[in-house]
Amino acid sequence: MKMKEAALIYLDKSGGLQKFVNDCKSYCNESSQACAIFRFLILVNPSDITELDATLGNYILHQPVKGTQIFQSVCFTAVKTLSLIQQIETEAQMNIVLKLTHLPSLPCYILSLCKFPFDYTTQRFYVAEGIVIAMSIITKYTQGAKFVCSEETCQFSEGFQYVRVHTAGATESATLRNDFACSLCMSPLKEDKKYRVLGDKQVVEMIDSKAISVFQGFSGNKTHLRFQSFTVFLRDELSNEMKMGNQYKIIGIPICMQSYLQATICLEANSVYPSNSTGPSCISEKFKYLLSLTSNSCWKFTALLADSFASKVLPSGIYNILKLSIMLSLVQTIDGDDKTADYLDLLVITNDSLTLERL
């Protein structure tokens, strides 16, 4: 009860309670007569919650399922007390998603691909940073489903007693299966398919930003890094939040999916933020010196840059025109969502595929 009171106080102080009320009103305005599951996003600042109630903050950071259940209970009480949504009959119909603003800046919250999954015994939040190297199209997944008892004489053959929603790190079979049983009469449950709710899902492959040095032909750090990519699941509002080649920080729950003898590292994203890492804020003295030496010609400077471009993966003096084109493409690259930008497309035909892969 104490943690529920703390959750209610936090929602009131942070403005989350008013946002929740407004979200409930939007459900009432829509045609929701055939809706069994109501999804709400709640923005959570772990530092503020921990300062308000340390136990609740610990639940959110280290036992997110229990932390979500506390907010779910508070929100259900608010719905019933204020008569916000008439269609909600049970607490299970409320799909509460806690969106974390950040994680504490401590080493224990950084996802280590070297140690995973050996030191990761509980499913809690971690932060990972990487570069997007592959993306899938947006597909559908089951966000939630309603089940009823197959025994018609059972009191749970109607109503919303059995509602299952997707939880972070769970597979599709955790929401939809044929072996669910009624807790009252142990009869099999059957899905009421007209109440099934679908959401958007996108699968992204990322690689640790520290592993980029491997593709440059050298590695200054002799520690053993894990160079293969890891999978990130983006769901619903996070779909299309990433772009190919960009670097991001992801707050999420890591899971290890076993397929026969192969283990795959996956991260269920909770929040996605662009990486703050930037290049140098000033031009280096070497570039200034090179520019002064070639100031008598408008082409010498760019020719020397193209000649030495990607020298760590290619010998100097080859593919200069291609390297010059890549340099122009990099200069033209614009951060942000500027759809009016004219991008430079390159078509390269060669038998030397290794060189192109290195570039």
From TrEMBL:
GO terms for biological process: double-strand break repair involved in meiotic recombination; double-strand break repair via break-induced replication; late meiotic recombination nodule assembly; oogenesis; spermatogenesis; synaptonemal complex assembly. InterPro entries: MCM, MCMDC2_N. It comes from the Eukaryota. One of its GO terms (molecular function) is single-stranded DNA helicase activity. GO terms for cellular component: nucleus. Residues 3-103 form the MCMDC2 N-terminal domain. PANTHER family: DNA REPLICATION LICENSING FACTOR MCM FAMILY MEMBER, MINICHROMOSOME MAINTENANCE DOMAIN-CONTAINING PROTEIN 2. This is Minichromosome maintenance domain containing 2. The gene is MCMDC2.
